[in-house]
Write a sequence for this structure.
């Protein structure tokens, strides 16, 4: 995190915290006992970027799609849903042996309102 | 040399480092004592606490002590050891010239490795410090000023990767650059920040009429 606060509206903060919590819980569930997680928050002025990464075993991209369509990959759907509701974007980077990284981008100016 | 106001901590660090072949030349409970002792012992590396709660009340802070050490003895390297959470103070110490930062909850292995790397002249960039430094560049970039330092795209990318826990080796592989180049990007980001801080201080001194 930066040394100074990253101000955001309450609603956005609550959702971003929920995203971090879900990503960390997912690592705790599937990452194995040795997995470590890192959380990075960046304030770019016009947008805020949240990155949550773990060095766990990662997931085969195809597997994730299968799991999602089968309703088992709740975390991906939940995180994407939360961020979509805020009007932000999610990038998921993962692969066998590559860990898992969620990058959430949230613009401060949305629908013509500076939030 | 270990500068910390807690005797038990100083003794523990001294033992851990002594067992790994380092020579502890001195300890000090606060900045005032440290600055007095350093000329006599000339350490290669100073492990610096940031808060001297039970030291001399008039002692400069860890960040200010770091600045004075680097000013007078530029070849001494300062590694900051701090309780987590003191973000602004850690950033101040790093801007003042510290070449790395480690949380006090780090393992003995991490401490020994950090001291060794600091002695060799490398920056000890934990993910937390990378996030702090990146945040400071982002903050400066939002100011309506043209004379603030900026990161190159590569430096930004390397700092982001360090901040999200990747090792120098992983970053080198991902960006198809050498291990040394990764280290150079990190050093460069740090140096620009420290240089800017010195310029700012000098400007402030001149504007307020207490330049030497």
């Amino acid at each position: 995190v930066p040394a100074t606060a990253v101000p955001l509206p309450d609603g956005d903060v609550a959702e971003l915290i929920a995203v971090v919590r879900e990503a960390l819980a997912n690592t705790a569930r599937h990452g194995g006992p040795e997995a470590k997680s890192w959380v990075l928050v960046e304030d770019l002025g016009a947008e805020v970027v949240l990155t949550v990464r773990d060095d766990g075993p990662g997931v085969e991209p195809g597997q994730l799609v299968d799991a999602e369509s089968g309703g088992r990959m709740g975390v991906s759907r939940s995180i994407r849903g939360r961020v979509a509701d805020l009007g932000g974007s999610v990038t998921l980077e993962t692969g066998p042996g590559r860990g898992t990284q969620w990058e959430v981008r949230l613009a401060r100016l949305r629908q013509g309102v500076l939030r | 040399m270990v500068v910390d106001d807690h005797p038990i901590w100083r003794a523990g660090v001294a033992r851990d480092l002594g067992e790994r072949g380092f020579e502890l030349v001195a300890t000090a409970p606060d900045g005032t004592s440290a600055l007095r002792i350093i000329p006599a012992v000339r350490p290669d590396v100073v492990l610096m606490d940031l808060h001297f709660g039970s030291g001399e009340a008039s002692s400069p802070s860890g960040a200010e002590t770091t600045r004075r050490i680097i000013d007078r003895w530029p070849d001494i390297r300062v590694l900051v050891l701090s309780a987590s959470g003191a973000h602004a103070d850690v950033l101040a110490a790093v801007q003042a010239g510290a070449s790395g930062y480690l949380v006090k909850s780090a393992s003995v292995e991490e401490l020994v490795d950090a001291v060794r790397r600091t002695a060799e002249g490398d920056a000890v960039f934990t993910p937390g410090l990378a996030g702090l430094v990146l945040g400071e560049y982002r903050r400066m970039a939002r100011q309506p000023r043209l004379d603030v330092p900026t990161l190159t795209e590569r430096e930004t990318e390397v700092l982001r990767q360090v901040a999200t826990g990747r090792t120098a080796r992983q970053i080198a592989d991902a960006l198809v650059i050498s291990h040394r180049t990764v280290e150079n990007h990190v050093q460069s980001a740090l140096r620009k920040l420290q240089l800017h801080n010195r310029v700012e201080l000098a400007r402030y001194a001149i504007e307020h009429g207490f330049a030497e």
Observations:
- The mean pLDDT of chain A is 86.
- The two ends of chain A are 21 Å apart (CA to CA).
